[in-house]
Design a protein that fits this description.
Structural class: alpha/beta
Number of strands: 8
Strand order of the largest sheet: 1-2-8
CATH superfamily of the largest domain: FAD/NAD(P)-binding domain
CATH topology of the largest domain: FAD/NAD(P)-binding domain
CATH class of the largest domain: Alpha Beta
Shape: globular
Length: 133
C-alpha cells in the first residue's frame, strides 16, 4: 500500500461531485489541494446521473464544459413512471438558473469533475485509501 507523504493546505477525501467541486474551488482560490480517491477513474456509481438546473448553474460557474459532444444530455424536467402512473414535471422557469437539467453517466461525470479540479491546481491521487485523520 502506498502512503502519500504530500503536504497541502486542504485535503479532500473522495473525488465524487462534492469532493471534486470542493477541490476545484479551493485550488481556484490559490490553496494547495490534495484530492484523494479510493477508486481509479473511470469508475461507476449507480446513482446521481441527473442534474437539476441549479446543479447545471454551478457547473457553468465552475467553467466545466457541458457540450453535447462531451456526453451531456439536456432535459426539460423529470419523468416519473411507477405503479401504473406517469408524471411529468417540467423544470420551473427561474431567471437565476438555466431552463434545462443535464444527464451524464457517472463513469465519465466524476472523472470530468476530478480532472477539472486537477486543471485548477489540485493534486489528484487515485487508488488511495484514507484510514485515519
Amino acid at each position: 500500500m502506498r502512503v502519500p507523504t504530500d503536504d497541502a493546505d486542504v485535503i479532500v477525501v473522495g473525488a465524487g461531485p462534492a469532493g471534486a467541486s470542493t477541490a476545484y474551488h479551493c485550488a481556484a482560490a490559490g490553496l494547495d489541494v490534495l484530492l484523494l480517491e479510493k477508486a481509479t477513474f473511470p469508475r461507476d456509481k449507480i446513482c446521481g446521473d441527473g442534474l437539476t438546473p441549479r446543479a447545471v448553474s454551478e457547473l457553468v460557474r465552475m467553467g466545466v464544459p457541458i457540450r453535447e459532444e462531451d456526453g451531456w444530455i439536456r432535459n426539460r424536467g423529470l419523468r416519473v413512471i411507477g405503479g401504473g402512473h406517469r408524471l411529468e414535471l417540467p423544470w420551473p422557469e427561474l431567471s437565476s438558473y438555466p431552463s434545462y437539467g443535464l444527464a451524464r453517466a457517472r463513469t465519465s461525470f466524476d472523472q470530468t469533475l476530478a480532472e477539472h479540479a486537477r486543471a485548477a491546481g489540485a493534486k489528484l491521487l487515485e487508488a488511495t485509501s484514507v484510514t485515519s485523520p
